[in-house]
Amino acid sequence: MTTTGMARAWAITRKDGVVLGFTDHDGELRFAGVVFRPRAGLTAQAVVQGAGLSVDNTEAVGALSDEAITERDILAGRWDGAELRQWDVDWQAPDQHRLVFRGHLGEVSRSGGAFKAELRGLAEALNRPMGRVFHPRCSAVLGDGACKVDLTRPGLTGEGHVVSVEGGRLRLGGLEGFSDRWFERGMLRLTSGAAEGLSGHVKNDRALPQGQREVDLWTQTGILPAPGDRVKLIAGCDKAAETCRLKFNNYLNFRGFPHLPQEDWLMAPGKESGRSEEILRKFREGGGIVEV
User: Fold this and answer.
1) Are 146 and 254 spatial neighbours (Cβ–Cβ below 8 Å)?
2) Strands 213-217 and 230-234
3) Taxonomically, which superkingdom (predicted)?
């Protein structure tokens, strides 16, 4: 591989399986089963790589285009967490290439018809805290391998449609049979329309007459749903032991420690403190040994 014939190429794999290839060369390149196109206009800064366990990082900048990376997809979060690979390649002989970076897209921002994406190397995972946290509330995510709740059980999910939208507040219909606040702290997923595939965490959930509900999301979705779009609601869990036992009948898999003492228990007066003070008073008054 010669320096004068070297180009850079990137392959981005979204979580939904879509793969796109880009290159800073002025012609199309093909290798590793990917077609790398030049007209998308993606460029990247030099990869910052360190020895040992330090975190590798870089940035990619490109133009928004209908054929490659669209503003709608960025708003919808479809590029969040996408896998990225970068090669140095001899454009005269594309089979001669060397992988120099592998990681994921971090924060993706857009401005003035362009986007900027932070690239996070494989060492980024080493920054995450590991191990269990000893806390009265559950550490599992509802429905995951530790929780083991089957979310397909009747009563844990509901499907309806959007009646109206006002920012992060949605009026939903077709959700009869669920009590007030049943989906609070749960998830809302959009299953049709322009925002299909997006989801949000439920902040407030209020039951209304005729099977309607008023749902507030903590953060509104990148693309707002429209009236008539289909939605799926998943029951919420506040991580408390009582909720696990009564709402989900899943106490055997509870991943918290509900019998831990309160955080201020060390500073709380002991039950025998009164008896100890009485003994000390009698000792001082008698000037000698006190029978206890």
Assistant:
1) no
2) unpaired
3) Bacteria
